[in-house]
Amino acid sequence: MVNRADIGVIGGSGFYSLLDDAEEVELSTPYGPPSDVVTVGRIGSRSVAFIPRHGRDHRFPPHRIPYRANLWALRSLGVRQVLAPSAVGSLRAEVGPGAIVVPDQLVDRTSGRVQTYYDLGGAVHVSFADPYCPSGRAVAVAAARSGEWDTVDGGTLVVIEGPRFSTRAESQWFQGNGWTIVGMTGFPEAVLARELALCYTSLSLVTDHDAGVEAGQGVTHEEVLEFFGRNVTRMRTLVAEAVRALPEHRTCACGSALDGVKLPFELP
Questions:
Q1: Distance (Å, rounded) from C-alpha 171 to C-alpha 65?
Q2: Which residues contact 219 (CB under 8 A, 6 or more apart)?
Q3: CA-CA distances (angstroms) from residue 59 to 38, 119, 185, 241?
Q4: Contact 229, 142 (CB under 8 A)
């Protein structure tokens, strides 16, 4: 397939108006269809492909999202850098609703999710010590600060299976480990991006304090959606600024993640 985009955005349905000159592209992958049709358009001079992570009608709960198909579809369009905005809960009393966290570490507490492309044909081991692209992180932090967000540079995102929220004891355990935010969709997205030698950057909007935090009282699905909805216009602006600032030529290590590795199949 001819390259049609070099930057991918995986986010909520509120990001559809992000792109100019947008057109929809239906794709199939060896892992089934992506969450929805892919919208391809432009932000300034940059070509961008957007996938609504849960589907435009929010039909996929976190543990049922076709993560492998989504990342494969983006790469097949030519995407090499991915921005991933999402809603998260805070595990730190000092990081409140409305903050943007750009994590530099990840802890996987999911279960049963397929988290690799290389489950047949021989083992493929990728480095994952630093899960996020350093170049993308620097761009996201600068864009958030420029937009006058309360910005947290670094921190650990713990990803839970969902779709339920954490118990108070679980939340206290996460907090006691020194982790920063909790979400349901950041894994296996990040590792699948690495397995395709893509840059991946998380932009996490704090919508609430998690239940075990001193300031937290638990949260409902409706409250999360309502808070994110109030901030989606501002989030679109943040993502657009980050897209414009991403490097046109990658110098980070993400693109060489598979160098010297014998792959069991050809990547798109």
A1: 24
A2: 89, 165, 207, 208, 210, 211
A3: 16, 27, 14, 29
A4: no
Catalytic pick among 36, 104, 108, 208: 208
CA 60 – CA 34 distance, rounded (Å): 11
Q: For this structure, is 208 an active site residue?
A: yes
Residue 234, H or E segment: helix 221-245
Check if 20 is active-site: no
pTM of the predicted model over 0.90: yes
Backbone angles phi, psi at 135, to 5 degrees: -70, -45
Catalytic: which of 21, 108, 210, 259? 210
Which is it for strands 81-90 and 46-52: parallel, antiparallel or unpaired? Answer: unpaired
Q: Which residue has the tokens 């990081």?
A: 95
Confidence of residue 169 (pLDDT cuts 50, 70, 90): very high
Pick 127 or 228 by higher pLDDT: 127
- Residue 15 is classified by DSSP as G
pLDDT band at 1 (very low <50, low <70, confident <90, very high): very low
- Kindly give, in sequence order, each residue whose CB lies less than 8 Å from that of residue 41, ignoring residues fewer than 6 positions away: 18, 19, 20, 21, 22, 23, 47, 48, 50
User: How many Å apart are CA 137 and CA 53, to the nearest integer?
Assistant: 20
Residue 83: φ, ψ to 5°: -105, 135
- What CA–CA distance (Å, rounded) separates 101 from 153? 6
Backbone phi, psi, residue 209, to 5°: -90, 135
The two structure tokens encoding residue 157: 């995102």
Please check whether residue 217 is in contact with residue 166, taking contact to mean a CB–CB distance below 8 angstroms: no
Q: Do 191 and 92 touch, CB atoms closer than 8 A?
A: no
